[in-house]
Amino acid sequence: MQTRYRTVVVDGLSVFYREAGPADAPVLLLLHGFPSSSRMFEPLLGRLADRFRLIAPDYPGFGHSDAPEPAGFAYTFDRIAEVMARFVATIGVERHLLYVQDYGGPVGFRMALADPGRLTGLVVQNAVAHEVGLGPLWDVRREYWRDRAGHEAAVRENFLSLAAARTRHVGDDPDPQRYDPDLWTDEHAFLNRPGQAAIQLDLFYDYRTNVASYPRWQEWLRRERPRLLVLWGRHDTSFQVAGAEAYRSDVPDAEVYVLDGGHFLLDTRADEVASLVRGFASTGR
Question: Which residues of the chain have pLDDT under 70?
Answer without folding.
Answer: 1, 284-285
